[in-house]
């Protein structure tokens, strides 16, 4: 399980935010991964890195100071995972290190999907940090191809946009309340409110959609923050892009000693992006 919330304000001024992204990565606790860092071979890129043997180098959320960001979530109830399928993690790193536009990249992916579904089920969200354009693609059986998301508040869970869980719908309202009057001068307060939001253990029930997908453990998965035996929320991510193109990225990661490590990165978007 993972969850993602996005606030879009393409007309942001210097005191407001063009994009606010808040996301939880849920994963088995034993899966190795490194916390957020600038990438050695692409120093303009920032994000955590999957260290699972055979899947090294992939990621779940990352951004490039050249104006790109991407998030990927598993898409449930489509098919059982097959070891012959390609890993999904490189879909993010391949995009943010490329010169491809969002449209070109997603159209090519959709073409690959319709010709044989090479990847395990996913929901992929790509963002243009310069104008807040947000695009979505799933490789579900009923996918009609890439979509542009024009709403000011967007929420995505593991059911995709097509089958939102109740915690996504409830979370969108709570997220909207936090971000609707966000001001750059109160950024520290905003970050704390978003992290606390991502730590919410309030169960959003009843949820027939979630129960259908996870009949035995749906109650444990019905909150924004998940904790279920050897699986749960391991990373909170907050991305802020203000109207002056200043980037703030905050990540909280659950460490092996069960404490949370917070990192905060500040940067500026690079204007000479070529895509």
TrEMBL record:
Cellular component, GO, one term:
Golgi apparatus
Q: Which InterPro entries match?
A: TANGO2
Give one Pfam family, short name only. Answer: TANGO2
Q: Tell me one GO biological process term.
A: Golgi organization
Specify the taxonomic lineage.
Eukaryota, Metazoa, Ecdysozoa, Arthropoda, Hexapoda
Q: What is this protein called?
A: Transport and golgi organization 2-like protein
Q: Where is the signal peptide?
A: none
The UniProt transmembrane annotation reads: none
């Amino acid at each position: 399980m993972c969850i993602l919330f996005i606030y879009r304000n393409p007309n942001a001024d210097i005191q407001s935010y063009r994009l606010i992204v808040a996301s939880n990565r849920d994963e088995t606790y034993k899966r190795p991964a490194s916390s957020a860092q600038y990438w050695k071979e692409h120093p303009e890129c920032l994000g955590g890195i999957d260290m699972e043997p055979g899947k090294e180098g992939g990621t779940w959320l990352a951004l490039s100071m050249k104006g790109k960001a991407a998030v990927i979530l598993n898409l449930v109830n489509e098919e059982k995972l097959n070891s012959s399928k390609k890993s999904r993690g490189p879909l993010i790193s391949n995009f943010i290190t490329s010169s491809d536009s969002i449209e070109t990249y997603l159209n090519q992916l959709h073409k690959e999907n319709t010709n044989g579904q090479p990847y395990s089920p996913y929901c992929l969200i790509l963002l243009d940090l310069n104008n807040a354009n947000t695009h979505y693609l799933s490789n579900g059986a009923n996918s009609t191809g890439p979509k542009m998301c024009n709403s000011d508040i967007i929420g995505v869970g593991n059911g995709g946009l097509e089958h939102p869980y109740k915690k996504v719908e409830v979370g969108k309202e709570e997220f909207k309340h936090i971000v609707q009057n966000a001001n750059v001068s109160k950024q520290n307060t905003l970050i704390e409110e978003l992290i606390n939001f991502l730590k919410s253990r309030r169960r959003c029930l009843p949820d027939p959609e979630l129960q259908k997908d996870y009949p035995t453990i749906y109650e444990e998965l019905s909150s924004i923050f998940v904790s279920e035996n050897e699986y749960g929320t391991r990373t909170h991510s907050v991305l802020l892009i203000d109207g002056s193109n200043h980037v703030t990225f905050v990540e909280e990661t659950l460490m092996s000693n069960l404490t949370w490590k917070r990192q905060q990165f500040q940067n500026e978007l690079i204007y000479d992006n070529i895509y």
